[in-house]
Amino acid sequence: MKNLPQKQRAIFLDRDGVINKSIMRGPNWVGSPRELHEWQWTDHIHEAIRKLHAAGYLLIVVTNQPEVPRKQLTIGQLTALHELMCRELPEIDDVYACTHDNEDNCNCRKPRPGMLLEAAKKWDIDLKNSWMIGDRAKDIEAGKAAGCKTCLIEYGYTYPCDPDLTCKSLLEFVAVFEK
What we know:
This protein is 30% helix and 20% strand. It is α/β, with parallel strands linked by helices. The chain has a 6-stranded parallel beta sheet, with helices on both faces. Strands 2-3 form a two-stranded antiparallel sheet.
């Protein structure tokens, strides 16, 4: 029997709330940074990313950015934010950003799994042995729809969902994962 190359495992990471801190833009509105000066790293993100990378996982960011079609964020601003993220976290292998809004009915906007499926095709990813980590129900739904295991980073502002694991931070996920 021929030895086939092994598919890769990945950790799919939502951006806002997992890598960088989300911004409260109103009493019930959790938003994204729009300018470089608004960007704040989540606690211990550099250590967590290094450990996940060292464990042999591809690290792929999948993020909804509806502020672009809402004219609250330009593609240039989004690019600058992602350049900062990738410069500071060089272990990140790829970034996928959906710049559609809810009514656009695209396949890439979470909770649909389009970004994960596109990355799986490009990187030859074994989705069953990969994880989707996010801070919202739509991240968990996208991960499940793609066939991944899921982890919710719990901040108390998400709708009920059914993740495989719930943690307070990405570093806590790493600690559970390493056991």
